[in-house]
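User: Please predict the structure of the protein below. I'd like the answer in structure-token form so I can feed it into my own downstream comparison script.

Assistant: Understood. Taking the following sequence of 216 residues as input:
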Amino acid sequence: MIEFDNVTATYKSKLGIYNLSFKISKGEFVFLMGPTGAGKSTVLKSIYKDLEINSGSIFINEENITKLPLRKIPKYRRKIGMVFQDEKLLYDRNVFDNISLPLKICGEPNKVIIEKVNDILEKVNLSEKAKIMPLNLSGGERQRVAIARALVKNPVLILADEPTGNLDPVVADEVLDLLEMASSMGTSILMSTHNFPLIKPRKKRFIELNRGELVS
């Protein structure tokens, strides 16, 4: 589903990733481990086409996205759900409107949008919060909204960049439960984290980086 083949991607600071190769299967939930500066965000940005790689190849669903033309990137990104540490919600819109945004961008009919958003609200246990503004939610609830927004378009892949970084352990576990639910539905999950005690009980495969290189 995801394949990195000898990928190097660097910044002017020379930080980045070097000759990185790994594979992730469809529906697999994999943790991307490593300290700050290890290259975790570089991997995610390379997949999302926020960063052009220097060399090597990246395949998503057997499609080589390495040289994807600019005009095709928006359509490609529709297949991917993004979840960030700071949620990146729109604070002038309620929960329903935040979750529905990807569907509106894709031009889905209103009837379909309402049906899909209500369905995902139920799955993340936020049905009663649909009309609430994000600032009136707890941190854990906002992160659930962010996950719901990522899931609502049925992505083939979710990239989660330190999504539990600002959460207490109990709420962080709830977030992992939601991502595991997505994985069980066939969505591949790649989640970056430096919190090994949090993920250890999950017994998932992890890819460990240090200074841009594969450790294990």
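That's the full token string. The chain is about 35% helix and 25% strand.
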